[in-house]
TrEMBL record:
Transmembrane segments: none annotated. Belongs to the histidine acid phosphatase family. It holds the Pfam family His_Phos_2. The gene is Acpp_1. Keywords: Disulfide bond, Glycoprotein, Hydrolase, Signal. GO terms for molecular function: acid phosphatase activity. Its EC number is 3.1.3.2. CDD domains: HP_HAP_like. One of its GO terms (cellular component) is plasma membrane. It catalyses: a phosphate monoester + H2O = an alcohol + phosphate. This is acid phosphatase.
């Protein structure tokens, strides 16, 4: 007879829909920033995160007593954490302090972006990583794939007002976000920003994301990027086996690059840009096999990826293991991407 017991749940999610962090020079909607601010969670973004919190409550309803929440120090990530917690922890009975406001404050921790060596990926202050990135951009494979986008980049420069040389990876991501925001929130899009153009921009963003964390010397990159986050997660998971360990849930509010870097380190990335409120779950279980007196305790990890609120999360299988992966095997399989002196 096998019995299972929950021990720890870890979630790393992307923030919800937000106002643009910058507008391209020819954008007709720059006044929105003056009204709503740059990079602020929208009503839709609040709803997306609140719904994610409600889903977590349904999934982990009996294990919500002790939680730790950390966010990057960006407004939309902090607001996303708070909106998720509102859905996860609606006050009940004696927790209700105002019957008209069914909300209670839950602490969210953060550090300045300049000191964030965990969630605000990619870490660009690392000379070794920057060298790997330069090597990646020079590879024949990357140049071959980028070549097909050269006319498209000139097209974007012409219509957005950005100089061609300034259309770097970060600006491409932000441009894609801006057009997505304007489309979702029913602003009039520029004539040139057709569905086909926006789709191609997403494909280009995905190519550049792959280049940031993979493509060339993926293991070495992961040691300096997603492996840093994975090492922290694994440390907490290993500590959770201790009977005195109280924390049952850890929640990280972050960005699409955070999820991609983590999933590249785990070799489970599907190549697609994580949508708003996408969430990667780690679940630690204690398996009890046999009779009580001779029970053999074993810990297993399961991973899931929720990238569609209308469907159940996708099970993720670490290469070389199965969905219900023994903790010792999981640790051994990911060890190549864990840096030991950071």
């Amino acid at each position: 007879v096998t019995q299972r017991e929950f021990h720890l749940f870890y979630q790393v999610f992307r923030h919800g829909d937000h106002t643009p962090q910058e507008y391209f020079p020819t954008d007709m909607h720059k006044e929105v920033a003056r009204q709503q601010g740059y990079g602020q969670l929208t009503k839709l973004g609040i709803q997306q995160q609140y719904e994610l919190g409600q889903y977590m409550r349904r999934r982990y309803s009996y294990f919500l007593s002790v939680i730790y929440v950390q966010s990057t120090d960006s407004d939309h990530a902090l607001m996303s954490a708070q909106a998720s917690l509102a859905g996860l922890y609606p006050p009940t009975q004696d927790q209700i302090w105002n019957p008209r406001i069914l909300w209670q404050p839950i602490p969210v921790h953060t550090v300045p972006l300049s000191h964030d060596n965990l969630l605000h990926l990619p870490f660009l202050h690392c000379p070794k990583y920057n060298q790997l990135l330069r090597e990646t951009f020079a590879t024949r494979d990357f140049q071959r794939q980028l070549k097909q986008y050269k006319p498209f980049l000139k097209f974007l420069a012409t219509h957005t007002g950005y100089p061609l040389k300034r259309l770097n990876t970060e600006r491409i991501w932000k441009l894609s976000d801006t057009l997505q925001y304007e489309d979702i929130n029913n602003y009039t899009l520029p004539v040139w920003a057709t569905h086909g153009v926006r789709t191609k921009l997403i494909k280009l963003s995905e190519l550049l994301l792959q280049a940031e964390f993979g493509f060339h010397k993926q293991i070495q990159k992961s040691r300096l990027q997603g492996g840093i986050l994975l090492k922290t997660i694994l440390k907490h998971i290993l500590n959770a086996r201790n009977p005195s360990h109280q924390r049952k849930m850890v929640m990280y509010s972050a960005h699409e690059a955070t999820i991609v870097a983590l999933q590249m380190a785990l070799s489970v990335f599907n190549g697609k840009l994580p949508p708003y409120s996408a969430c990667h779950f780690f679940e630690l279980y204690q398996e009890k096999n046999g009779q009580v007196l001779q029970a053999v305790l074993q810990y297993t990890i399961e991973m899931y990826y929720r990238n569609n609120s209308l469907r159940d999360p996708h099970p993720l299988t670490l290469p070389g293991c199965k969905l219900r992966c023994p903790l010792e095997r999981f640790t051994r399989l990911v060890s190549p991407v864990l840096v030991h002196h950071w």
